[in-house]
């Protein structure tokens, strides 16, 4: 006989103790989840700061870069050029960013494509029509930063992903793409084969005599110009012969042919290729420093918001 309800009180105490244990366990789980989120936030913040530093370094380097030739189109305000080594460092830092909300956007468009489908919260409408003959990419960590990147070589496929991390493989693949480059200039051209942004397989300087431009008027100038045109024709034909040899040797290796320089000379070699040809806007090559031309060839264009 339970006159004072002892058994009932004990059952209630056991029930409350069980509830307390459940709440304590739930509290610990929530605490652990919160700690993990805080840790991820710290990692994102750190990676973001590293990325900002990398972009700042690139901007400072850009300010110290001498002007390029008139062969290159002018750049819009807010646009930066990133050399391959700087781009690789930026990619490593971007690769360290992780979002538990799985809201990191990576979008890639092939040549001629634009970013029309990007959310307006990420990309203003005025920028959605941006397009490039090499394709364009959009990388965004919402409320933190958005980058538009134009590659030095074309993207070969399109895609949009939203996840915990950036999809950087299309950008990284370009750095390792072999290219045959022809830098065509009157009397002094260069043929280079690269295995990627870090390695020159071969380069050859092609020289023939070409008269300098003549500024005097009259019959003398017309005669001089005819002679110069003949010199350029001979140089173009000789360049074509050397390019055909390079194509025969390296066609199984390279993925693209890049041409830069004077249009009157480029037309001599345009029919030499079965590979995709891209127009590269590079400064005149320096045979003493072919690595500089290699760096220009694999330089990315970046727009930061």
Describe the protein's topology.
Layout: H1 6-63, E1 79-82, H2 84-95, E2 104-109, E3 136-141, E4 145-150, E5 159-163, H3 169-175, E6 179-184, E7 188-196, E8 199-207, H4 218-250, E9 256-261, H5 263-269, E10 277-279, H6 290-297, E11 300-304
Parallel strand pairs: 6-9, 9-10
Antiparallel strand pairs: 1-11, 2-3, 2-5, 3-4, 4-11, 6-7, 7-8
Helix pairs in contact: 1-2, 4-5
Polypeptide structure, described:
Residues 58-71 have a biased composition (Basic and acidic residues). Residues 58-81 are annotated as: Disordered. Pfam families: acVLRF1 (PF18859). Residues 191-295 form the Actinobacteria/chloroflexi VLRF1 release factor domain. The chain is of the alpha+beta class. The chain folds into two domains: 47-65 and 73-175, Translation, Eukaryotic Peptide Chain Release Factor Subunit 1, Chain A, CATH 3.30.960.10; 179-288, Nucleotidyltransferase, domain 5 (2-Layer Sandwich). Helices cover 41% and strands 21% of the residues. The chain has a six-stranded antiparallel β-sheet with strand order 1-11-4-3-2-5. Strands 8-7-6-9-10 form a five-stranded mixed β-sheet, with helices on both faces. α4 packs parallel to α5 (263-269). The longest helix has 58 residues, at 6-63. 25% of the residues are buried. Mean pLDDT is 83; it is low at 64-77.
Which bin fits the share of residues in helices? 40-55%
Order of helices and strands: HEHEEEEHEEEHEHEHE
Instruction: Tell me the count of domains.
Output: 2
CATH superfamily of the largest domain: eRF1 domain 1
As a whole number of angstroms, the C-alpha radius of gyration is 30 Å
Biggest sheet, in brief?
A: 6 strands, antiparallel
User: What's the end-to-end separation, in Å?
Assistant: 79 Å
């Amino acid at each position: 006989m339970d006159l004072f309800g002892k058994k009932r009180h004990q059952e209630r105490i056991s029930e409350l103790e069980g509830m307390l244990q459940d709440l304590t366990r739930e509290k610990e789980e929530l605490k652990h989840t919160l700690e993990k989120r805080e840790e991820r936030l710290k990692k994102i913040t750190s990676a973001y700061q590293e990325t900002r530093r990398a972009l700042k370094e690139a901007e400072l380097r850009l300010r110290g870069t001498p002007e390029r030739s008139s062969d290159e189109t002018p750049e819009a305000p807010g646009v930066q050029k990133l050399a391959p080594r700087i781009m690789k460092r930026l990619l490593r830092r971007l690769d360290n960013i992780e979002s538990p909300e799985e809201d990191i956007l990576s979008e890639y468009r092939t040549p001629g494509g634009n970013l029309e489908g990007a959310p307006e919260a990420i990309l203003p409408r005025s920028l959605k029509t941006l397009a490039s003959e090499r394709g364009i990419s959009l990388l965004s960590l919402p409320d933190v930063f958005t980058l538009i990147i134009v590659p030095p070589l074309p993207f070969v496929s399109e895609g949009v992903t939203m996840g915990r991390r950036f999809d950087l493989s299309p950008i990284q693949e370009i750095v390792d793409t072999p290219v045959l480059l022809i830098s065509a200039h009157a009397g002094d051209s260069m043929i280079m084969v690269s295995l990627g942004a870090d390695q020159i397989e071969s380069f050859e300087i092609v020289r023939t005599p070409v008269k300098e431009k003549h500024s005097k008027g009259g019959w003398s100038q017309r005669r001089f110009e005819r002679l110069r045109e003949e010199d350029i024709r001979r140089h173009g034909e000789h360049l074509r012969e050397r390019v055909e040899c390079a194509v025969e040797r390296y066609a199984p290796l390279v993925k693209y042919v890049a041409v830069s320089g004077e249009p009157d000379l480029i037309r001599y070699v345009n029919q030499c290729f079965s590979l995709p040809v891209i127009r590269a806007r590079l400064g005149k090559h320096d045979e003493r420093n072919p690595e500089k031309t290699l760096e220009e060839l694999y330089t990315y264009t970046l727009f930061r918001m």
